[in-house]
Amino acid sequence: MADDKDDNVRDLRRLAKRYGITIQSPPNAQQWPAVHQRLFESISKIGDQKFDTFCASIDIRSNDEPWREQTKYRAEWLAKRAARLFNQQRNESGWRFGLENDVLRRFSVEVACPKCRARIWRSEIEACINELDEVAANLADRRKNRKSCTCAPNDRPQDYYEIGTNPLFDDRTQEVIFHDPLLRSQLPKQEPDRVYGLQETNNFEKLLSTPMPSALANDADITLRELVRSSPFRDGVEPLLFPFLILEAKSGKSSSGFYEIQTQTAFPIFALLKLQEDLLARVQDSGVADRPLIWFFANRGDAWRVYGCCLSDSEPTRYDILHLWDGSIMSKDSSLQLLLIVDYIFDWARDIYRPSILRQLKSLVTGSTFDQISLTDDSDIISMRRNISNWIQAAPSTVAGLDFEQDFGEHNIASTPDHQSSLRIPIPNTKLGTLRSAALIETRVEGLFITEQNVTKLLQLAGGEEPARQLLNFLAKWNELLLLTGDDLDDLEEAWMSRSRFATESPAPSTSSEFYVLIETKTFMNTSWTIVRELTYLAVSKEAFEIIFTYANYKIQHPGRQLVAKAARSCSKTVLIETLRCLLSGSPGQLFIAATTCICLSLYALPEKKRSDHAPPIQTLAFGNLRRPRLPEFIQKFHKIGKRKERRKWIIPRNVYELPPKERSDWLKKRYPEDRVPAPEDLSFIRNAEGIRLVSEKDLHEEGRCARCILGSKYDEKPHHFTASGPNVFSAYGLDLVISLNLADDDSDRHDICLFAVTDVPEVAGDKELAVIVEDLLQSGHGYHTIRHPIPQGLRRSIDLRGGDTIWNLPLHYRPFTGKERIDVTDWVSELKSLPILDSAKKRSTDFRWDGLQMLLHYLGKGKPWAEAVREIKLKDRSTSNNVRSDVYVQSDKDERRRREEAGEMVEPRPIIHWGPFPESTRGD
């Protein structure tokens, strides 16, 4: 009998070899196909997780990530349960019934809280996105906006059965796989222990029932279901579509080892891969980034293995079964790793695999290429519902049990603070002005994160030598360079966003490598009158910097390497944490003041270096006021690469693939003599995040109690950018007016007006009562003045050409209203009262429009009081004003010429400006 069994295994192996099925073990990363490299690397990274390390951070992260504690308990339970089954010497059924459902439970349950519909689970590592289109952008946005459950711990679901079943995936147990007739005659009946695939939801049913275009169906009247085989099992009422995970189990005492398990499952894996391969072959001009992939779990008692099964990059095509992970789940480390791997595959199946299959099917139905297909209106996923297109039926209702994604609460409006929900006053529906909350803050992170792993690909995509020189010259210009580790940068991002590791497009892994880092922060008001706090950084690892230097390929010696090495100073985590605590504090009044002033800061080390050959230890980080931000525009040049699609699409006839490699290469070179510019695959250099939060008086920044400010005061008379925020920041109403030039549309003759409020404001029944408050504030004679960002492209280009730069760190942001501003505020009062707005000739006054504002800020920046600055401007005639304008911009012109001439080869001083004095007049209540 044993000999017959061995013969059967050998026969299956030979047959598998004939069909190009290869089983590669142990792990060999060099054999991984490039298209799946990052997915498999993530599995490898999970395999390095340790139970003790994972559990150490649960207490401080449990509020934001309530699922981590449950994962810990599941891993402990799984290890104990496996040890008990091992001692009981269970058979195969005993092992399967005792553990399998618990290991794979993630595929059976929902991940949204039944009360608040926010997330009660999120994968420890989220599956990477290979595509660079609106679908990928939509997924990235949804991931950024996913909210964790905020219910009290006692109100959260304590059992999986409280949550509900998963509506997107299903499984089959020991059902026969149907191969094509030729192969079926050579194989025994094959029934995998378990297979997971896609449920036939509304979207799939709608697509598969669609009649096919006559050209694709050879003029036959058939549906997509009849044209494309979507299930390996016998047809049923609710078929399991395009399975992606297969499991085969044996008992620990079985005579069959992993060799037999692999051989037994080889052809079922082949059948599942063929479903995806055949579908892909039918898609026109396929631009599908995610190629066929099947996950295979094999276990023999307590020993588990995970495989990735895919098509090789070689020709002829092989069907490779690649060993990725193994472990004994009697160990807490291995049980944790296995659960996290299941979580990761579930995340991949929901966010990447399922949408890719839907897009391919929709491509066949519509006749459009894959790149043209959008799923931003996928009605099976409630967070993607917008305008439902005609190929998807409308959602019938929102009652439980319908075809919803398990995370349908991730865009729950009630859980996301907005201006209206944080105010007691209704926002008026008027054109000339609006109302906003000073407590609502938008936070952003924008980073360029260059590592040894991604720098080569980034430089190749950007153009090679020239971008390398730009990076080198840019780093060599500044003496604020800090040395931080990759883990420090992760902490910086997490703290700034007030949450755990934020979701980015392909976030880079944490690392202890040292990085050269430049950091800037901005606090301003955007064009929608929301206060924004933004952190921007450029980080280049030391290893990546050396590669950049090599790519720069200077023919003569370049001083950049020495300049960067001398300028960079190591910053401890303690100093960084104290700086973050200082920067992230701030009451609504303090942040309101900073935003109206358009604060733009650079972080630099104190004490400053006095000699080039000695760098004292960093005691604290200081904030330098910048004349203009330096990092965003530079960083965006490289971020845009991530949005670029392939420049050329190669259309290659099928018969060319059949040519020998040499002839095929010659054909391609002749047909396409120029190298194509591929779309980027690794986006780990892009670090973007944004979110909304509410601040309160509890967040007040106090210099006398701030450790960073106390240290900074030894070196700087004004250690922080916040001004004192006493009760007179806002009027007695708890509201105040802010005026800005209307740069958002063509009506630039008028100012845009916003009434900002704190949370403690009086009840206002309607617009007419609000008009009374605005009139009273106007009579006080003073108001806040700001410039909203971003500045429109055309105006910004004009500013750059003229050398203007007075748009950040505005002097005297609280000052009297001009005559034109009084007219515009009065017009808004009339609009609030539903009165006609008079059309007066004096409204065309152009006092203090952009050029006038720049001149005014120029004089205020020199320390002149408001009245004197206005008097000097009014005393000058037009020709003199032109000279004044020239004086305002001349220094910036010189700086710009110097910058271009030097091309970044010399270190420039920090561009810090000083604030002008405040007006002598007091606040008007």
Structural class category? alpha/beta
Q: Globular, elongated, flat, extended or rod-shaped: what is the shape? A: elongated
Distance between the termini: 98 Å
Low-confidence stretches: 159-163, 376-415, 500-510, 877-925
Biased composition (Basic and acidic residues): 892-903
Region (Disordered): 889-925
Please describe what this structure looks like.
The chain is an alpha/beta fold. It folds into four domains: 2-384, no CATH class; 439-645 and 681-711, no CATH class; 649-678, no CATH class; 728-902, no CATH class. The strands form three sheets. Strands 9, 10, 11, 12, 13, 14, 15 and 16 form an eight-stranded mixed beta sheet that branches. A seven-stranded mixed beta sheet has the order 1-7-6-5-4-3-2, sandwiched between helices. The chain has a five-stranded mixed beta sheet with strand order 8-18-17-19-20, covered by helices on one side. Strand 6 and strand 7 (319-328) form a beta hairpin. Helix 5 runs antiparallel to helix 6 (92-103). The N and C termini lie far apart (98 Å). Residues 159-163, 376-415, 500-510 and 877-925 have low confidence and may be disordered.
Concise structural overview:
Residues 889-925 are annotated as: Disordered. By secondary structure, the chain is α/β, with parallel strands linked by helices. It folds into 4 domains: 2-384, no CATH class; 439-645 and 681-711, no CATH class; 649-678, no CATH class; 728-902, no CATH class.
Topology, element by element:
Blueprint: H1 2-18, E1 21-24, H2 37-46, H3 51-56, H4 58-61, H5 67-87, H6 92-103, H7 134-145, E2 169-172, H8 181-184, E3 194-198, H9 202-208, H10 224-227, E4 241-250, H11 258-282, E5 293-300, E6 303-311, E7 319-328, H12 332-366, E8 433-437, E9 440-450, H13 455-462, H14 465-477, E10 482-485, H15 486-497, E11 514-525, E12 531-541, H16 542-552, H17 560-567, E13 569-570, H18 573-584, H19 588-596, E14 599-606, E15 620-625, H20 631-639, H21 654-657, H22 661-671, E16 686-694, H23 707-712, E17 735-741, E18 751-757, H24 767-779, E19 782-786, H25 793-802, E20 814-816, H26 819-832, H27 850-861, H28 866-875, H29 878-902
Parallel strand pairs: 1-7, 4-5, 8-18, 9-12, 10-13, 17-19
Antiparallel strand pairs: 2-3, 3-4, 5-6, 6-7, 9-16, 10-11, 11-12, 11-14, 14-15, 17-18, 19-20
Helix pairs in contact: 1-11, 5-6, 5-12, 9-12, 11-12, 14-16, 14-17, 15-18, 24-26, 27-28
Biased composition (Basic and acidic residues): 892-903
Region (Disordered): 889-925
